[in-house]
Amino acid sequence: MTVVPEAVSAPSGKAPGLLARERTIAGPRFNRWLVPPAALAIHLCIGMAYGFSVFWLPMSKLVPGAASCESLGFFAQLFATSCNWTVPAVTHIFETFIAMLGISAAIWGGWLERAGPRKAGFIAALCWGGGLVLGGIGVSMHQLWLVFLGCGVLGGVGLGLGYITPVSTLIKWFPDRRGMATGFAIMGFGGGAMIGAPIAVALMAHFTRGDVPGVANTLIVMGIIYYIAMAAGAFGFRVTPNGWAPKGWSAPAASSNKLITQHHVHLNTAWKTPQFWLLWIVLCMNVTAGIGVLAMASPMLQDVFGGRLLGVGTTVALTTVQKAALAASAAGLVGLISLFNSLGRIFWASTSDFIGRKTTYAVFFVLGIVLYCTLPTLGHLGLAAMFVIAVCVIMSMYGGGFSTVPAYLADIFGTQMVGAIHGRLLTAWSVAGVAGPFLIAAVRQAQLDAGVAKSLVYDRTLYILAGLLFIGLIANLLVKPVKEAHHMTPEELARERALQHEAPLVTASAGDAARGSFGVVGIVAWALVGIPFLIGVWIALSKAAALF
C-alpha cells in the first residue's frame, strides 16, 4: 500500500502563490535525484564566499595615485573617499557575512521549514545576488560602508538562507542516505570558490580601465549571474509527499542504533537540550581548528620550507624568479585545499552513512589531533610532500564536518524541523569564523613580538588548535539520545505539519508517489551543475601542479 497526499488548497479557497510550499509538493512523475542539482545550484553560488580573497588586493587600489587609508581607523575608512582602503579593513567583509550567515540561519530557520525551499531559496538568491550588486555599487562610489551593507550584511543573509534551504528537503528525500544527500549540496559550498574565483579574476581583468581594477563591474555581473542560477535552483525544488519513503526501504529498528531516533523534537525544545550544545561545541571546535589551517597553510608552506621547495637551502637568498616559483607553489596548495575541502564533504558525509555520525566525528578529532601535532615536525624535517598530504586530509575533514552535521542533527532530533535546528547550530560557525582568525593572528603576532623565528611561529598555534580538537572530541563522546520527554507528541507533530501545509495521508491502491523516471530533465540538470564543478576541479588541479 502506498501513501499519497490529497490535493492541497490555500486558505480561503485562494490558489497558493508561485513560491508557496504547497506548490512544491512532488507529483508521481518526480524523481528524487532532481533535488541534489537544485541544491548544488544554490550552494555553488554562495560558495564564492570562500573565494572573496581575490577581491581584497584590487579593492585596496581603487583610487590611482591616492595614499593609503592606513592612518585612519576602521570606522573612518567606512566613509573615506579620497584614499585607498587597506587590505585588513576590507577583509572584515568576510567575517561580516560569515557572522550574518549564522545569525540569519538561526533567526529564519523555523520560518524556512514552513515557507518551503522554493520561497527560501528565491529570497536567498535576491539577497546574495542583490548584495553583490549593491556591493559593486558601493565600490563604484568608493563607499566602504555600502560594500559592507551589500556584500557583508545583505549577502550574509543570502548565505544563511541559501545554506540551510536544501538541508531539510534533502534529508527527507534520502532517509536511506542522509549523509550522502547533504554531502552533495554542501560539497557545492566548498567547491563554489573553485568556479567563482577564476571567473572573478577574469572579469576583473576584462573590466579594468587604466590603473583602476574592475572590481565594481565584476561584483555586479557576478551578482546577476548568481541570482539567475540560484533562482533556477529554487524553482527546481520539490518536497516529499507526507509519509513518502524510498521504495523497499523501511526505517531501521530503534534498537539497531539508539542515536537515530524515529521521533521528532521541536526547534523550541531542541536548542535547550544538552545534545544541541554538545553538537554546537563539536562544530565550533572543528571549524575553528580548520579555519586556522586554512588561514595559515599558504604562508606556512612558504615560511617553513622556503627555498627547500625549489631544491635550494633555506639560507640561500632567493631570486625574483625563485620567489615567483615559491608563490606559485603556495597557490598550488590553495588549489588543493579548495579541492579537498569540497570533495571531503561528499566523501565523509557518505562514509557517515555506514560508520555512523558519532564515529565519523571521532575520526575527525582523533586523526586531526595527530595531524595537527605532526605538522610542526614535518616542517622541521623538511618533508614538504608529507606536509601537503597532511594539510589536504585536514581540509577534507574540515569540509566533512559541515556536511556531516545536518545528518547528525536528523539522527538526534528527527527530520521534521532539522533545517531550523541546523540554522540555530550554524551560530557555531559564526563564532568560529570571527574568533578563529582573531585567535590565529593574535598568537602569531605575540610570538613574532617575542622574537620567535618566522619558520617556528606556527608550531604553538598548531598545538593550540589540537587542544581545541580535543575539546570537540570530549563533547562528541558525551552525545547521547534525546530523552523521550523532549519528543513531540502526535498532536504537536500534526500541528507543525499543518503549519507546513502538509496534506493528510490517504491510501492508494495503485501508483507510487514521486517515483518518476530520471529522463532528459535530470541529465540537463546535473550537467548544468556538474560541468562547472568539473571545470573548477580542473582549474584547482592545474594550480596544484605547481607543487610538483
Automatic annotation (TrEMBL):
Residues 44-484 form the Major facilitator superfamily (MFS) profile domain. The keyword Zinc does not apply. Gene3D superfamilies: MFS general substrate transporter like domains. The keyword Membrane applies. InterPro entries: MFS (IPR011701), MFS_dom (IPR020846), MFS_trans_sf (IPR036259), Proton-linked_MCT (IPR050327). Keywords: Membrane, Transmembrane, Transmembrane helix. The chain crosses the membrane at residues 33-57, 89-108, 120-139, 145-164, 184-207, 219-237, 276-297, 324-348, 360-378, 384-409, 421-442, 462-479, 518-541. CDD domains: MFS_OFA_like. This is OFA family MFS transporter. It comes from Dyella lipolytica.
